[in-house]
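User: Please predict the structure of the protein below. I'd like the answer in structure-token form so I can feed it into my own downstream comparison script.

Assistant: Understood. Taking the following sequence of 158 residues as input:
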Amino acid sequence: MLRELGTARWKEGTAANALAKWQKALRYLDVHPILLDDASPELVEEFNTLRTPLLLNLALAAFKEPVGTAGARMRSARRLPCSMLTVTCVSHIGAKALYQQGLAQLTLKEGEAAEGAFLKAVSPAKEDKAIAAELEHLRQCKKSQREKEKAAYKIFFG
């Protein structure tokens, strides 16, 4: 219910309200963040089915918020369990999760880690233009930075 309310707020264009609804829904799920060992596979699947889109939506909504929420972006993107990323890496959800992690790492100026996340994300989602565009933008920025460094060193070392 809260997830749908957050989605409705997102579609209305109020990212802050959507973020609040999704955070509240995640708080309810975080009451028992680790399921019992004897939990049925159906319950585990349903739990992950609810949790994964919430975390992805939280990371996306945090990008729409003003500056100063880089930590929130990274926390949302990194909270996806590693097992979830490896299991769903062949799917669109896994690619989306890796894309969100890459964006969060870019925000924190972790270019190498971001490039790694984008490269992992592009393999299962080759047709996704957003991932390819971010990867290309990152590569262009790195190339530009190298050119600036070469020009600076050329001044010093002739």
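That's the full token string. Helices lie at 2-12, 15-29, 41-64, 70-78, 82-87, 92-107, 111-122, 129-157.
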